[in-house]
Structures are given as structure tokens and as C-alpha cells.
Amino acid sequence: MLIIDNYHFKDDCRTPNNPSLPLLVYKQALDSHHTPEACSELFQSNEWHGVWVNGVYPYHHFHTTAHEVLGVVGGEGSILMGGENGKTLEVQKGDVLIIPAGVGHKKVLASPDFQVVGAYPSGQSADLMKTGEQHHSKAAANIQQVKLPRTDPIYGKKGPMFDHWK
Questions:
Q1: What angle do CA 108, 113, 118 make, to 5 degrees?
Q2: Which of 104, 118, 137, 152 is the most buried (most CB within 10 A)?
Q3: How far is 154 from 45, CA to CA, in rounded Å?
Q4: Per the database record, which ranges form the Cupin type-1 domain (predicted)?
Q5: In sequence order, what are the residues at sequence separation of 6 or more whose Cβ sits closer than 8 angstroms to the Cβ of residue 137?
Q6: pLDDT at 134 > cutoff 70
Q7: For 116, which DSSP code?
Q8: Is 135 helix (H, G, I), strand (E, B) or coil?
């Protein structure tokens, strides 16, 4: 049974976060044998593109032009979500984070083998905004314009993301 955690973060005047969409964490949505290649293929088959494999930046950042998915394919880590006063989440291999446009994120700690696969919904490409280094009202306005994805990055057109993102 899939466990989905969701978190809402308020605008803290440095990180806009998302006023209507929660961060979703699908706990252990990827099986233990998911390689970076298999995760990349899964995201692409569900119309999430611009796939990359790496870690998470060790500074607060967010995207105003795209939603983002992170599939943890190696190790474990602590990620601070929602800006400086947000919530630190412990993630491990198999977890998937679906991050709405505007929600800040930063790696706090990670095991040496920590690795994620990231992607963005079809038709969206991510900018990179560092917390406190943007025109806040423009960033918040851009976030409001980002359309909902057509598909859930793991489960496709009828995925549980749509129960939380309306």
C-alpha cells in the first residue's frame, strides 16, 4: 500500500512556496531494484522530461516555471523543504518527492551514495531561483501560472497526485 505524505508551506517572504499545491512524498514508491536508468525511463514514460541524475543542491532554491519530481535511487538524506523555516524530511532509496513550483528545497545531510533522478512535466522547464535573490512578487506571480502536469510521474494519468493537486 502506497503511503503519501503531504506538506503545505506558507510564503515566508524569502521563499514563495506554493499557495495551493502541497509537496507530496510517495514513501517507497520505487522498488529496491530501481536504477537511475529505470527511474529515468519511468518518468519519461509518464511525460516528465528534462531528466537528470545527481543529488540535491546544498542551498535553498526553488523553481518558478516548473514542478519537479525527485526519485531517490540511492542512499538516504535529509532535505529541508519549504525554506529556512520549513520542515526537514528524511528520505531514502525508493522515496519519490513531487515538488510544486515555488517550494524551496535544500540538502542538509546525505549518505555518500545518495542519488536522485529529477524531471519536470512535459512542456515545462525549470529555472533556478535562490532564496532571497529574486524579485519576490514576480516569482510568486510566475508560480501561479505554472500549469498542473498532465500525468503523475510514477502512476500516469490516474495517479494519486491528482487526489492532492486539483
A1: 70
A2: 104
A3: 9
A4: 61-108
A5: none
A6: no
A7: E
A8: coil
User: Does domain 3-147 fall into CATH 2.60.120.590?
Assistant: no
Q: pLDDT of 77-117, one tens digit each?
A: 999 999 999 999 999 999 999 999 999 999 999 999 999 99
Q: What does pTM read for this prediction?
A: 0.97
DSSP string, 36-101: HHHHHHHHHHTTEEEEEEE---SS-EE-SS--EEEEEEESEEEEEESSTTSEEEEEETT-EEEE-T
How long, in residues, is the chain? 166
Burial class of 143 by CB neighbour count within 10 A (0 to 12, 13 to 18, 19+): buried
Element (H, E) at 142: helix 136-145
Amino acid at 126: A
